[in-house]
C-alpha cells in the first residue's frame, strides 16, 4: 500500500521526503522513539455521527487536542464518536496506527469527509504515514488539495 502512496505523489508532482522508523501505533510512540522530523506531525481521528450515516477523517497537529462536542458544532452534527477497528478496516482499508489522509487510496465509496485543522497550512511541511506505520512522508501541506481533488472527495479546512 505504501508503494501506491509514492506513485500518487510522483503522479501529482508532489515533492516529498521520507524516513523509516520503528512502528508508531499511537502519538505517544513518537515521543518514545524521539523521532525528529522537519515537519508538523499530524494525528488523524476517524469519527462518525450517531446514526453512522456520516464518517469523517479529522486531521490536526499532534500536540493539539479537540473536544468532540466543539467539533460536533463545527461539523453541524448532533453527536460524534470514534469509529471502531472493524469500520476503519471496512471504510479505509487500514488498521489502527496507520490512519492518515493517504488512506484515501483505499476508499471503496466516497462516503468520508476529510476535515483538516487549517493550522497545518501554516507549516512548510506536514507529516503522515504512507499507509504503514514504519515510515513517514513529509511534504508541503498546500499540496493536500491536489490529493483530495484527484480522488474527488469531500474535504474542508476548519479552524478549531
Key features of this structure:
26% strand; single chain; globular; eight-stranded mixed β-sheet; 160 residues; 8 strands; alpha/beta
Report on this structure:
The chain has 160 residues and is α/β, with parallel strands linked by helices. The chain has helices at 2-11, 27-33, 68-75, 85-92, 144-151; strands spanning 17-20, 40-49, 55-61, 80-82, 112-117, 126-128, 135-139, 155-158. Strands 1, 2, 3, 4, 5, 6, 7 and 8 form an eight-stranded mixed sheet that branches. A hairpin with a 6-residue loop joins strand 6 (126-128) and strand 7. The model has no long low-confidence stretch (mean pLDDT 90).
Describe the SSE topology:
Blueprint: H1 2-11, E1 17-20, H2 27-33, E2 40-49, E3 55-61, H3 68-75, E4 80-82, H4 85-92, E5 112-117, E6 126-128, E7 135-139, H5 144-151, E8 155-158
Parallel strand pairs: 2-6, 3-5, 5-8
Antiparallel strand pairs: 1-7, 2-3, 2-4, 6-7
Structural classification:
alpha/beta
Compute the number of helices: 5
Strand and helix order: HEHEEHEHEEEHE
Beta-strand proportion? 25-35%
Low-confidence stretches: none
Sheet of most strands:
8 strands, mixed
Radius of gyration: 15 Å
Shape category: globular
- DSSP helix fraction: 25-40%
Distance between the terminal alpha carbons, to the nearest Å? Answer: 31 Å
Can you count the beta strands? 8
Average pLDDT figure: 90
Amino acid at each position: 500500500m505504501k508503494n501506491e502512496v509514492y506513485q500518487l505523489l510522483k503522479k501529482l508532482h508532489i515533492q516529498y521526503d521520507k524516513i523509516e522508523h520503528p512502528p508508531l501505533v499511537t502519538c505517544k510512540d513518537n515521543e518514545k522513539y524521539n523521532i525528529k522530523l522537519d515537519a508538523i506531525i499530524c494525528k488523524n481521528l476517524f469519527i462518525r455521527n450517531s446514526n453512522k450515516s456520516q464518517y469523517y477523517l479529522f486531521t490536526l497537529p499532534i500536540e493539539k487536542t479537540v473536544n468532540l462536542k466543539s467539533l460536533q458544532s463545527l461539523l453541524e452534527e448532533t453527536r460524534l464518536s470514534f469509529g471502531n477497528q472493524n469500520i476503519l478496516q471496512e471504510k479505509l482499508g487500514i488498521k489502527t496506527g496507520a490512519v492518515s489522509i493517504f488512506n484515501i487510496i483505499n476508499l471503496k465509496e466516497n462516503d468520508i469527509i476529510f476535515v483538516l485543522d487549517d493550522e497545518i497550512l501554516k507549516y512548510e511541511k506536514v507529516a503522515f504515514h504512507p499507509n504503514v506505520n514504519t515510515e513517514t512522508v513529509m511534504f508541503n501541506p498546500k499540496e493536500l488539495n491536489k490529493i483530495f481533488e484527484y480522488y474527488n472527495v469531500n474535504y474542508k479546512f476548519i479552524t478549531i
